[in-house]
Design a protein that fits this description.
Blueprint lengths: L10 H26 L1 H16 L8 H18 L3 H18 L3 H12 L34 H18 L3 H9 L7 H22 L1
Helix pairs in contact: 2-4, 3-4, 3-8, 4-5, 4-6, 5-8, 6-7, 7-8
Length: 209
Amino acid sequence: MVIRKSLSSSPKIVEKQFFKKLKFTLYLVLFAIMLAGATYLNIIKDQVFYLQNTPISISNNFKSEIILDQTAAIIVRDGSIPPNVAKKYSLWIYEAAAKYSVDPILLLSIMHTESRFNYKAVSPTGPIGLFQVASSYHKEKTSKAALFDPKVNIMVGAQIVQEYSKMSKNTIEMLLRYNGSLGEAPNYAIKVMKTKLKYDREILDAIAS
């Protein structure tokens, strides 16, 4: 009689346990990021409300001007974008955030991760522009040609973030939906959240100084 030693668990079970632990760790990281940025997020809500209600006289609000300028400076640095263009992107980000009630720095971080602020970016698989919007999935929002307009792309990107947020339990799940990698390793979500943490700190420092 041959006795065969059975494995304690199959490779699929081990893999599932690994991703379960990784997911839990990621949730802890997300909680730490949100806790660290709580003060900033409260400030940004005030600025978003201001931008939504008084967009023409924005220069009269000192904090809003600081936030816009620092956001533009980030876009100039990380995307090699001319300052005057970066300032427009910055304003559109906050307008989109106000319209769709989403975190503006999360939008900024997604833009950087998706296109490095290049409005002409086109993926080999089809997604277009700053937010790499897949026109085939979101054709009801705007035309394919319009997605090359930076402002339109930002607005559509923010709308998608809002829609996926409503479908998701948390920001990590929303980002994985956005990337089309839900159920896979959360590399994309980690990358976006690390970028967001960095940008949150930079804007907070600008406000504090």
